[in-house]
Amino acid sequence: MTQDMLTAPTPSRSSSRRHSPLQDAQMQLESAIHTLGYNSGLHAILSRPRREMTVSIPLRRDDESIEVLTGYRVQHNFSRGPAKGGLRYSPGVDIDEVRALAMWMTWKCALLDVPYGGAKGGITIDPRLYSRGELERVTRRYTSEILPIIGPERDIPAPDIGTDEQTMAWMMDTFSVSAGFTVPGVVTGKPHSVGGSLGRASATSRGVVQIALAAVEHLGLGRVGVSRLTAAVQGFGKVGAGAAAMLADAGVTVVAVSDQYGAVHRASGLDIPALLTHMSETGSVVGFSGGDELEGTALLELDVDVLIPAAVECVINSGNADRVRARVVVEGANGPTTAAADRILADKGVVVVPDILANAGGVVVSYFEWVQGNQAYWWTEKEVNERLSTRMIAAWEQVAQSAAEHKVSLREAATCSAVKRVAQAHLTRGLYP
Ligand code: NAD
């Protein structure tokens, strides 16, 4: 989103984007419905979004020309509370991608027992090609178009790929100006100065690392500080960069990281603080002098203890899953492993910690931000981090125990537990009329 990014190298192409994450999301739901013994009526309700909105966003560009972009907001379910989910700015965004991401948000919120349903939004745009003023106009117009369906009690957006806390501040301001008073609870992931929670920016990464270390210990791969553990992280944005830095702080040797332009590798461990400086100066991890260049997708095939895909969907697929050599895959991104790859990894004995558990730290602290905003009473960063940690570890233990008990994968255990909570809300509320 910065001017620097305009001068960054050309993105490496990924063929993985052809796979539909919606198909995988539907298959996961179908399997959970079958395991839980629910009927086809409940399946039909849960397989469709409750509400979707597609909007045209006319943009006056800086050169005075007019361009019309397309935006989406999909609310998959709100049987347990307001819909909740990120807003993505990416050239590949389409309605099916947003539908899949909205469904996964429903399961994630239910699994972590935060009182929300699931939603997702997106605009088909490459934010690196637009000025800050243009992005502000796009964000404000999109917000005003979806105004009738969002709000602190309806649907609460948050940052995702290509958006950040500034985007959330523009959304909050647009909504508030329309309401005639300040409504901090309409978005989370806002800057602290306008009601954002301490600890929100790092929450997803913090949760990913907590879960990764719990998984490593659970699988007997070693203990941080006692054994040498290695990790590779795909994606060096809000989730990936934070996860790499926290892993390194915890004593894990981060041997490789990548972004959409390429990857860097150093067997003895990358200097993550130096890499963060390089990133902020150049807009990419490429060209970092403290490591060797690596082909982006080769990172996924490194012999490491922990692999953290923290970029986009479907990067581990039937084309490369048999070459994954990590002991544990911890899904920082949403939907990075396709259903076919899941099966291949399971056959190889590679454990996958699913997205709806691994990257739930963001929505947990979003919930804390919403609670603080609604009460106008703010917690310290220590309080936020401790409450986050308690919830993440409890969810991990519950999922790990259920997977062992029922002899299923962590993804199946997590999805079943989440679907059951949402189904119970539906069955208790009944069908209207
Ligand atoms: P971001 O825009 O901050 O960063 C995305 C990163 O991925 C960038 O470094 C980009 O260069 C890189 N990337 C894109 N395509 C790539 C490719 N093919 N190979 C390697 N790197 C590639 O986005 P983010 O907020 O960090 O989100 C990343 C993932 O985490 C997404 O799947 C998102 O839905 C998920 N997620 C984010 C949050 C959050 O709080 N931000 C919470 C839960 C899940």
Layout of strands and helices, then pairs:
Blueprint: H1 3-6, H2 21-36, H3 40-47, E1 51-60, E2 66-77, E3 83-90, H4 95-111, E4 117-124, H5 132-146, E5 155-159, H6 165-179, H7 203-218, E6 230-234, H8 238-249, E7 253-259, E8 262-265, H9 272-282, E9 292-294, E10 306-309, E11 328-330, H10 339-348, E12 351-353, H11 355-358, H12 361-375, H13 381-406, H14 410-429
Parallel strand pairs: 3-4, 3-5, 6-7, 6-10, 10-11, 11-12
Antiparallel strand pairs: 1-2, 2-4, 7-8, 8-9
The structure holds nicotinamide-adenine-dinucleotide.
Structural description of this entry:
It is a single chain. By secondary structure, this protein is α/β, with parallel strands linked by helices. The protein is built from 14 helices and twelve strands. The strands form two sheets. Strands 9-8-7-6-10-11-12 form a seven-stranded mixed β-sheet, with helices on both faces. Strands 1-2-4-3-5 form a five-stranded mixed β-sheet. Helix 4 crosses helix 14 (410-429) and helix 12 (361-375) crosses helix 13 (381-406). The protein is globular. Mean pLDDT is 95; it is low at 1-17. It binds nicotinamide-adenine-dinucleotide (NAD). Nicotinamide-adenine-dinucleotide (NAD) binds at residues 14, 159-162, 204, 234-240, 258-260, 296, 310-312, 332-334, 359, 362.
